Every structure is written in structure tokens, then in C-alpha cells.
């Protein structure tokens, strides 16, 4: 067990994981990223970012790289002007790449569309012209409430082109969630679809908009894509069909350059820890960092790669790594509308095989789901085209990392575990393929140009082997520029905890291993205090997932009369795993063996599902309610709210 030193510690460092994978010479020889980038960035951070900004086309060059005089409100590339959509589309066409495929789109029912950069240019221009004709002007807000169809991307880029600020709301959210987001941003237009496909059937989407906009005075129009053909209610004058409004519009449009700090979008965080916050991002710095990280972390070769990020555009990953990063880098990418098990559990692998995808970026939750479904499913497909695979959203358990590398990455593809947040806009801590020695479960180190540290309660950096809080101690180009309409909440949430030092506090716990690599340990709100030890939920979950029978685990601290808090775990077993007579004892002993008796769960509950947000994060606060026999809290941002009923029922019947 870890010794408590005199220095204050946020977290005990319990789990040991020693496997390491250096890059192959072959990969390193062709990698975009190089080790000297770290030295270059350390020597002069601002000069380094200025060089990255040269990746983009600027109509007017900046006069100052960073203005931090109004901290914590940053201004990057002061005085610079650019058009984000021009950078993502037109300039590639002008450089002779109009015929290159931008998007291989796969609909859930099996319909497909191939969209070249020229096609994308035409579609974005038509959309921009149509929005202008509706009276929208730079600075206005537009809500986008669409499934994963190409029109979602056209809409975002049309907004960017016109200087409209988009607010994408996940297509699975309720009318109420949509209403509060429209209201908060005072959007004038909602772009939606009649319906969307979900697990093989067409379900209504516009109906939720109809309900929401009865109470949103700012909405002037609802623009509706016909996706499923299902019946919809129609408000004459307010509602407009996409095919009657956008399609007839001109496919020519001259982009205007906007200030580097012009608002690009508002995106509400996933609400894992509380009420969603409207995170504001601007243009020049955001595009610089999404472009730079996408190029280096995924080793993108625009002429050869086929890239696939499985996120929804309603999540920041969809903004930065489907729309802005990849398109600014002229990627050819796959966009898939549906769920991973429609019509069968091999759908992702089938798509990778079909398009010969070479880069695949997904979430740990999905990897654990694939593990649960069984190894035999990916084994039926040819995944040999994959050369870089990535994850985002939660700490990845070492066992899930190894499974991913073995079964999806052929035992050789670099796995990039990327840590970042809606607030950071782009990847911050991640290995660089071809440069970094990988460790399963570790996001390793801040990228060149980024500065992150693990600190104790007093803001002092902990030493090797120490645990604490992850902070960002230097501003970065794609950092949030505030919370929409709430300056105070911005200061409170991110800058108050380490106000003295001027650090941005991310809300996550982390540790350094003996080599100084960074391991994310989950949210500090989730940390358990057991008999005076601060234990991370992530470490106990990883210990559980390392048992061959466990596919997924969620751990919470529940009030306990003797230990203060006790570890309560919820586990999902792997496909085909036999529960055995005393699975609970088996797993408790396993945890004790892996990390020590202090972390031994008081209770282990086998459940069919876990409560997750739309972006796949486990909502531990709801499980804490179950563990402490409380009424279950707000479930509006759950992907499937019936999961909590399933869990409660199972527990009541003693299953
Ligand atoms: P809210 O802030 O409303 O609770 P959220 O934090 O879930 O919502 P996001 O911005 O989508 O919304 O998630 C960012 C968080 O996801 C990070 O703070 C971290 O906890 C987690 N995360 C993302 N990537 C990783 C990763 N690679 N390793 C560990 N944790 C990660
Ligand atoms: Mg957060």
C-alpha cells in the first residue's frame, strides 16, 4: 500500500501496470510527429503555436500570438482574420483536390453517399445562401438538432462560413433539453429532421422540436431535412423543408473573413457531474489546435488514409475530430449514422473492411462493449488496414486497451489514449504515435505546446509516483473562452480552485508513474475516501475489468458506518462468462490481490447495463444514489433512462 508522505495527496496511487510498447522503427520512420517538437515548443511556446497556425489560410495575419492580459479570458492570434469553412473546404478544392472524397457516409439502413470536397463546397455554399436568405447574420445563433447525416456537417460549416454561432444538440436529447439550450443561446433557427433511425426503426425527431419551440420566443424558423419520410406536424410560415429551401439555392458563395476570436460555437458539456455548461469556442485558435492535434496524434496522411471517428456530432469529439480537425486537414473520412449493433454486432468491423479504414477513434465504453460481445465478432472481418487506433471520453482500463490493440489493432497499431474536454476544445494529453512508448491505461504526456501538471491540494507539483489533481498551467489556443452568458460561473468552475497559481483546474484526478507518465484517475468528485485513503474509482474499475469474467465495471463510494465510505461495484460480465457460484467473492478477492485489501469492494452487484451519458460516460452519481438507497437524481442526459429501472429492479429481486 502507498505510504502517506508528509505532503498532502489527493489520491493514493494503487494500481500497478508495467507493460510498455515502444514504437516500431517502421512506424517512427514515417510518422508526422517527431521528438524534437517537444524541445521546439518548450523553447518558445508562442512561436510554436504561431508555426502551427500557419497550417491555415489567414486573410489577415495576426499581430500578436497570445493576449493573456484579460486572464482567464484568452485572445489568440490577435488581429488575425480567417474563414473557418474556407479552411475546411474551399482551399482544398482550389488546391486541386476537389475530386477527393471528403465523406463516405453510411446510413443506418444501408444507404450510402459519397461526398467529394467539391460536393461539400457546393452543399455548404447552398446552405449558407439559404441561411442568409432567412435573414441570419454573423453573430446570430443557430441550433442544430440532427442525426448523423451529411446535412449536419453542411449546417455546421455553413454557420462557420457566415459567422453564425452553432449550438449542436444531440439528436437523442429530449424536447426539454433542446428547449433549455435554445433559450440559453437565444437561437433564431433550429435545423432538424423529420425523424431518425435508431436500431433499425424510424423514430420522430421534429416532434421534439415542435414541443420545444412553443416556449422559445427567439426561434423564427425550423428547417427540416426529410430523412425518414415519417409524418410530421407542420407550422406554415415557421417550418421549411430543407429540399425546398437549401437545394434550390445557389452553389456559389464568397466567404467573408472573421476575426480570430469570432465565436464559432457553443456546446453544452455532457452533464456527467451536474447541470450542462454552455462552453464557448472561437475560431482561429480552435482551428489551429484541432488541425495540429488531428494531424499529429492520428498521423494523418491526407492522400492515403481513411479516417473514422465514431463520435456523434452532438459531442465535442464530433466537432473537433469529425468536422473541424479532419476537414481542415483534407482527410477522407467515414461518417456512420447508426448504432454499432445494427443490424449486427460486427457493423463497425464491416464498415472498416468495406472502406479499408486506416485510423479509428472511439470511446472506452464501446471497446468494453465489444469485449462483452466477444472476440469472435471482429475476428470475422479484415481489419488489416487499421494503422492507428484511438480512444477518448474516459480513462481506458489497461485490459480494455490490450484487448483493443490485440483484437482491433492486430497487436501492432499504436493506441492513442487522448485526454481532453469540451472545455479544452482539442486533445491535450496523449501519446504521439511513432514517438511515444505506450503504456496501457496511460495518456502519457501533454502534447508539444501544451502544459499540464499533477498537483497536490496546495498546487505544488507531486513527484513521480504521486497522485493529485490535473491542472493546465499555461493557456492553449483552443481553450474555452467562457461559459455562454455566465462569466462568474466560468471563473468559479475552472479558475477558483487554484486561483493563487492561476491554473485551470480540469476536475480530474491523475497520477504520475515512476517514469513520470500521466495516468488519469477519473473525476475528483468520484474519488472515494475509505478508512482515510483517497481511492480512485478508475483504479478499482480497472482491477475488476482485468478479471477474465468482467467486461465493464462501475465503482462508487457509499456511506459506511465503519470506514466512512465503502467501495460498491456494479459489474457487467463478458459474453459467455459463467457467473459461477460466488462471483462476488471471486471478484472481491481479485481486487484485493490486484491493488490491496483497502480497495476491496463491500458489495459487488452484477447488472445488465450501466447508466451512461450520450457520450458514453458512466454516471456514477446515479449509482451512488442506488448504493445509498436514495431517490435517483436527474436522468435527462442519460442515453437510455430505462437502464436505472433495470438496475433497481434487478437489485430488488436480488439478482
Ligand atoms: P460535465 O462537465 O457536464 O460533467 P463531461 O465532463 O462528462 O460533462 P466532456 O467534456 O465530454 O463532458 O468530458 C470531459 C471529461 O471526460 C474529462 O474531464 C475526463 O473526465 C473525461 N475524459 C476524456 N478523455 C479522457 C481520457 N482519455 N482519459 C481519462 N478521462 C477522459
Ligand atoms: Mg466536464
UniProtKB/TrEMBL annotation:
PROSITE patterns: AMP_BINDING. Residues 95-484 form the AMP-dependent synthetase/ligase domain. It holds the Pfam family AMP-binding. GO terms for biological process: acetyl-CoA biosynthetic process from acetate. ATP binds at residues 393-395, 417-422, 508, 523. Residues 37-88 form the Acetyl-coenzyme A synthetase N-terminal domain. InterPro entries: Ac_CoA_lig (IPR011904), ACAS_N (IPR032387), AMP-bd_C (IPR025110), AMP-bd_C_sf (IPR045851), AMP-binding_CS (IPR020845), AMP-dep_synth/lig_dom (IPR000873), ANL_N_sf (IPR042099). Catalyzes the conversion of acetate into acetyl-CoA (AcCoA), an essential intermediate at the junction of anabolic and catabolic pathways. AcsA undergoes a two-step reaction. In the first half reaction, AcsA combines acetate with ATP to form acetyl-adenylate (AcAMP) intermediate. In the second half reaction, it can then transfer the acetyl group from AcAMP to the sulfhydryl group of CoA, forming the product AcCoA. This is Acetyl-coenzyme A synthetase. It comes from Herbihabitans rhizosphaerae. The lineage of its organism: Bacteria, Bacillati, Actinomycetota, Actinomycetes, Pseudonocardiales. The gene is acsA.
Amino acid at each position: 500500500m502507498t505510504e502517506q508522505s508528509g505532503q498532502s495527496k489527493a489520491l493514493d496511487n494503487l494500481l500497478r501496470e508495467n507493460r510498455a510498447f515502444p514504437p516500431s522503427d517502421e512506424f517512427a520512420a514515417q510518422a508526422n510527429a517527431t521528438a524534437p517538437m517537444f524541445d521546439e515548443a518548450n523553447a518558445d511556446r508562442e512561436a510554436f503555436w504561431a508555426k502551427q497556425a500557419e497550417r491555415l489560410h489567414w486573410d489577415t495575419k495576426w499581430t500578436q500570438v497570445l493576449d493573456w492580459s484579460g486572464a482567464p479570458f484568452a485572445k489568440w492570434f490577435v488581429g488575425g482574420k480567417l474563414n473557418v469553412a474556407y479552411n475546411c473546404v474551399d482551399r482544398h478544392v482550389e488546391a486541386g483536390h476537389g475530386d477527393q472524397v471528403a465523406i463516405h457516409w453510411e446510413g443506418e439502413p444501408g444507404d450510402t453517399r459519397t461526398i467529394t470536397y467539391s460536393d461539400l463546397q457546393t452543399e455548404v455554399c447552398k446552405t449558407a445562401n439559404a441561411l442568409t436568405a432567412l435573414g441570419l447574420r454573423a453573430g446570430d445563433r443557430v441550433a442544430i438538432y440532427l442525426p448523423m447525416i451529411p446535412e449536419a456537417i453542411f449546417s455546421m460549416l455553413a454557420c462557420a462560413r457566415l459567422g453564425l454561432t452553432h449550438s449542436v444538440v444531440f439528436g437523442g436529447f429530449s424536447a426539454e433539453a433542446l428547449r433549455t439550450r435554445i433559450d440559453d443561446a437565444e437561437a433564431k433557427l433550429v435545423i432538424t429532421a423529420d425523424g431518425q433511425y435508431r436500431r433499425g426503426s424510424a423514430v420522430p425527431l421534429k416532434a421534439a422540436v415542435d414541443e420545444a419551440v412553443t416556449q422559445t420566443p427567439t426561434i423564427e424558423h425550423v428547417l427540416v431535412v426529410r430523412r425518414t419520410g415519417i409524418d410530421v406536424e407542420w407550422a406554415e410560415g415557421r417550418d421549411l423543408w430543407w429540399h425546398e429551401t437549401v437545394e434550390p439555392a445557389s452553389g456559389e458563395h464568397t466567404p467573408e473573413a472573421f476575426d480570430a476570436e469570432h465565436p464559432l460555437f457553443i456546446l453544452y458539456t455532457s452533464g456527467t457531474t451536474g447541470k450542462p455548461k454552455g462552453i464557448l469556442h472561437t475560431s482561429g485558435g480552435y482551428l489551429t489546435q484541432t488541425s495540429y492535434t488531428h494531424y499529429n496524434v492520428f498521423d494523418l496522411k491526407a492522400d492515403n488514409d481513411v479516417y473514422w471517428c465514431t463520435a456523434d456530432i452532438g459531442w465535442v469529439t464530433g466537432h473537433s475530430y469529425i468536422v473541424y480537425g479532419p476537414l481542415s486537414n483534407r482527410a477522407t473520412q467515414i461518417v456512420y449514422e447508426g448504432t454499432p449493433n445494427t443490424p449486427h454486432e460486427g457493423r463497425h468491423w464491416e464498415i472498416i473492411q468495406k472502406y479499408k479504414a486506416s485510423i479509428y477513434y472511439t470511446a472506452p465504453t464501446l471497446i468494453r462493449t465489444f469485449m462483452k460481445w466477444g472476440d469472435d465478432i471482429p475476428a470475422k472481418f479484415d481489419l488489416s488496414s487499421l494503422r492507428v487506433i484511438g480512444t477518448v471520453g474516459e480513462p481506458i482500463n489497461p485490459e480494455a486497451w490490450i484487448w483493443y490493440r490485440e483484437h482491433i489493432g492486430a497487436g501492432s497499431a499504436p493506441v492513442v489514449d487522448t485526454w481532453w474536454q469540451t472545455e479544452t476544445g482539442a486533445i491535450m494529453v496523449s501519446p504521439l504515435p511513432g514517438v511515444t512508448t505506450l503504456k496501457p491505461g496511460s495518456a502519457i504526456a501533454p502534447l508539444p505546446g501544451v502544459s499540464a501538471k499533477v498537483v497536490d491540494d496546495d498546487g505544488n507539483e507531486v513527484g513521480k509516483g504521486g497522485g493529485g489533481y490535473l491542472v493546465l498551467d499555461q493557456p492553449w489556443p483552443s481553450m474555452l473562452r467562457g461559459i455562454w452568458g455566465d462569466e462568474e460561473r466560468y471563473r468559479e468552475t475552472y479558475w477558483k480552485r487554484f486561483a493563487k497559481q492561476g491554473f485551470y483546474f480540469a476536475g480530474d484526478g491523475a497520477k504520475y508513474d515512476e517514469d513520470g507518465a500521466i495516468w488519469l484517475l477519473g473525476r475528483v468528485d468520484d474519488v472515494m475516501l475509505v478508512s482515510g485513503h483517497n481511492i480512485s474509482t478508475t483504479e478499482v474499475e480497472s482491477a475488476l475489468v482485468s478479471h477474465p469474467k468482467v467486461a465493464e465495471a462501475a465503482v462508487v463510494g457509499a456511506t459506511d458506518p465503519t470506514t466512512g465510505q465503502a467501495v460498491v461495484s456494479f459489474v457487467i460480465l463478458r459474453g459467455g462468462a459463467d457467473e459461477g457460484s460466488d462471483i462476488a467473492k471471486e471478484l472481491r478477492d481479485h481486487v484485493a490481490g490486484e491493488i490491496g485489501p483497502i480497495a476491496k469492494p463491500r458489495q459487488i452487484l452484477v447488472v445488465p447495463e450501466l447508466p451512461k451519458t450520450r457520450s458514453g460516460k458512466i454516471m456514477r452519481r446515479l449509482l451512488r444514489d442506488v448504493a445509498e438507497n436514495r431517490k435517483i437524481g436527474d436522468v435527462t442526459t442519460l442515453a437510455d433512462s430505462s437502464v436505472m429501472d433495470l438496475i433497481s429492479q434487478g437489485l430488488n429481486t436480488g439478482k
